[in-house]
Amino acid sequence: MLRIAVVGATGAVGRECLALLDGGIVPVERAVPVASARSAGRDLGGELGLSLPLADLVTLDELDPGDLDVAVLSAGAEVSAREAERLASAGVLVVDNSSAFRMRPDVPLVVPQVNPGALDDRPAPGLVANPNCSTIQLVRALHPVHELAGLESVVVATYQAASGGGVRGLRELADGSRAVLDDPTAQGAPGGRFGQPLAFNLVPEIGLPDEDGFTHEERKLVREPRKILGLPDLRVSATAVRVPVFDCHSEAVHLRLSEPVTAAAVEDALEATPGLRVHRRAHSPSYPMPRTVFARREDRALVHVGRVRVDPEDHRALALWVVADNLWVGAALNALQIVALAAKNGWLA
Ligand SMILES: NC(=O)c1ccc[n+]([C@@H]2O[C@H](COP(=O)([O-])OP(=O)(O)OC[C@H]3O[C@@H](n4cnc5c(N)ncnc54)[C@H](OP(=O)(O)O)[C@@H]3O)[C@@H](O)[C@H]2O)c1
């Protein structure tokens, strides 16, 4: 039984962590919700209808690391950079949802279905990094394809939901949509969580661009799959786009493979992979969509792959459409699956 802190418990990811803990994903002796002083006095157990053993909500200053086995951090990179090592040095296993430690060589970056061996031993710093939400669903779809036919290069365009921008992002999309429905000439102003108004719009820039014009989010999609898949030379090119859907990220993925494949062989390989659901070409519709994936609890826990196509003129060129819930598969569920794997490996407590 674990004593686990959920840091960022009032946020989009933190709330889903609590809901998954409530569902019994790992055995919990006590969950401690942690948020900023802004949230003092909130009763998350009541708000979210939780029945797990839940302590009162505290701030990080009030959190006692001596009373914890695990802390899942979902309060942004600044908070992680400031607090993660303090907690880890007190003996707490820290699973960090932010980008603060992902590329540090001594910190494993883990997707339990893809590189579980990275958790065979307790990492020396006491930190495990949870990858970016778009990375997780991408590598879960890529891994079986790599085992089947070898990956040479990846071109991915993401269609990322407002929930990737947290509670504030969800609110901005809802408010902005209402404003445009009330007044179709309303343009909204630049700024806010997405840099531009998202309602009835597409924003093809997530994070700041670097000197080459690629954004932070796009760079993560290049670096993180290389580390997780153990393919340091994998060619990856990404375009990350924010789209006006509330939940679930989608990705159009184009792959260059070492070996020729057939669509049926790829569908079979994906279908044989636990945690993936294939929407086969023979069925209708042959594709997953954010709204249908988000509608069912069991679908929210899976990575969905459809529109599997092999270029008829080049049997080493494969195209896929991948959809997953960014808050579960891309964040809370992956983080708690890391905790479950650590517990199974026996080095957690
Ligand atoms: N959203 C996603 O799809 C997604 C996916 C993968 C990873 N992530 C990462 O997960 C983290 C959280 O994202 P989110 O979308 O859940 O954000 P969010 O909805 O904005 O929630 C942020 C949370 O952090 C808390 N917080 C902020 N400052 C704090 C402080 N000084 N001390 C304690 N708690 C503090 C907030 O508490 P208050 O309510 O009290 O302000 C809130 O609970 C980010 O690092 C993000 O990059 C998000």
Characterize the structure shown:
Helix content is 32%, strand content 21%. It is of the alpha/beta class and 349 residues long. The structure holds NADP nicotinamide-adenine-dinucleotide phosphate (NAP). The site of NADP nicotinamide-adenine-dinucleotide phosphate has 31 residues, from helix 1, helix 3, helix 5 and helix 10.
Tell me which CATH architecture of the largest domain applies here.
Answer: 2-Layer Sandwich
Helix/strand order, N-terminal first: EHEHEHEEHEHHEEHEHHEEH
Main sheet characteristics = 6 strands, mixed
What structural class results from the helix and strand content?
alpha/beta
Instruction: Give the amount of beta strand, in percent.
Output: 15-25%
User: What is the CA-based Rg, rounded?
Assistant: 20 Å
- List ligands, each type once: NADP nicotinamide-adenine-dinucleotide phosphate
CATH topology of the largest domain: Dihydrodipicolinate Reductase, domain 2
Mean pLDDT: 96
Shape, per Cα inertia axes: globular
Distance between the termini: 9 Å
Tally of separate domains: 2
The CATH class label of the largest domain is Alpha Beta
Weakly predicted, low-confidence segments: none
Percent helix, as a range, is: 25-40%
User: Which strand order do you get reading across the main beta sheet?
Assistant: 7-6-8-11-10-9
